[in-house]
Structure formats: structure tokens, C-alpha cells
Amino acid sequence: MMKYLFRPPRALLLLLLLCLSACHSQTRQAKTLVAQLGDTHAERRAQAAKALVAMGPAAIDALIWGMSQENPPRIREKAVWTLSDIATPPARVVPALISVLSDPAENVRVAGSIALPQLGESAVPFLLKALASESMETRLHVAYALGEIGKQLDDKSHLPDILTALIRSLTDSEWNVRRLVVRALVTIGAPAVPALTEALNGTDRELRGMAERALNDIGTPEARQAIAAAKKRFAAE
């Protein structure tokens, strides 16, 4: 008798089956729409993207599948833009977008680096971690994204963390990454001057050279004054 006491009512079982069926149906629909992102007609691509955004987080798994390399670059790129329009939750969206920064197709990588800054401050913790990636392409595009986000922030936000990470990356082993890090610091502009000045007066010769380049490109009176003072100091030593 006791084994029957905890049997779910038939109505509850039916409801669970209906929910599972609806979820499965929604998953199939989302995948169909992602495939439509590669349609040759622009209007059909736009309709698919709009429908996926309307589905919100329920479409994320399908879009992540769309960004996988089993799909052609056209679908992967469009999936990147669509996922960035959904934007939330950042813990799922941002890592997925970072993953395409090392995609074999340049248009997909560029789409990722442009889409990430649109997510704003919520993307920063994930980007800071990705700046230490083994992939040169990832580090390069992450530096660009951090510069674009950093120029919109103030000292009460993630800006100090961004500046610390970028300054550290001025000595990256890859020249192209160092170049993009300089660009990111120049994009942030005047708020980066104190951190760059500190680096300019440090003991690392390579770091001093890159810091001077960034300060020179920023070009504010404070930046020029920092360069002049450092040159005077090192000349006297």
C-alpha cells in the first residue's frame, strides 16, 4: 500500500510531459531559426534574428551551436550579433562571445570584438580573465574590447582593474597584442595617464618604452609632462 502513496497525480504527469514537449519544440524552433541566419535573402535573415532575440535566453543554446565551426562563417557571424542583442545573462553570453575571438574566420572574430563592448561593464570580469588566454587572437581582440568599454567608465567602476590588466599586457610576448593594448589605453585617454606614468618610471625597460608610446599618443599636457620628467630623471641617473 505504501508504494502508492507518493505516486504523482496523472494530471501532474501530463503537465510535465507537455512542458517537456514544449521545451523540445522550442529548442527545435530555435535551431531552425539559427540555420535561417545563413539564408541568402537578407529579409529572411533579419526575421530569424528578430525571432531569436524575442525568444531571449531560451535561444542561447541554439545560438552557441550556431557559432560552432560546424556551421558556415555567415551563420557564425550572424549568431554573434544576435547573441549580443540578447545580452543576458552575461555569465552565459559573454564567455560564448569570447570563444569566437579565435575563430578561423576574420569576420567572425571582428564581430565578436565589436559585439563585446556593447555589453558594457558586465563583460569586464570575463574579458579580464580572457586577457591571459593562450590564444594570441583572443588576447588581441580582448584588449580592443577593454579599451572600448574603459573609455565609458569612471574610477568608481571596473576602470582601475582594466588599467592594471592593460598595463601588465604592455609586455605581452606578441607585438600585435602590445599594439592593441597601446591602442586600448589611448582610447581610454586621460584616465590612463596616472597608471602609464607609474609604468614609465618603473624598472622594466620594455614596459617603459610601451608606456611612453601610449602617453605620447594620448598627448595631453599631463602625458607630455610625464614623458619629459621621466627622460630628465633617467638622464640624471
User: Could you give the count of β-strands?
Assistant: 0
- Mean pLDDT score: 90
H/E series, N to C? Answer: HHHHHHHHHHHHH
- Uncertain parts: 1-6
Q: Helicity range of the residues? A: over 70%
Number of helices: 13
In whole angstroms, how far apart are the ends? 93 Å
Radius of gyration in whole Å, from Cα? 24 Å
Task: Describe what you observe in this structure.
- By secondary structure, this protein is mainly α.
- The protein is built from 13 helices and no strands.
- Helix 8 packs parallel to helix 10.
- The radius of gyration is 24 Å and the shape is elongated.
Q: Which tags fit this structure?
A:
single chain, 237 residues, mainly alpha, 13 helices
SSE blueprint:
Elements: H1 10-36, H2 42-55, H3 60-66, H4 73-86, H5 90-99, H6 106-115, H7 124-130, H8 136-150, H9 159-168, H10 175-188, H11 193-200, H12 205-218, H13 221-236
Helix pairs in contact: 1-2, 1-3, 2-4, 3-4, 4-6, 6-8, 7-8, 8-9, 8-10, 10-12, 11-12, 12-13
Q: What's a concise summary of this model?
A:
This protein is mainly alpha-helical. 70% of the residues lie in helices and 0% in strands. The radius of gyration is 24 Å and the shape is elongated.
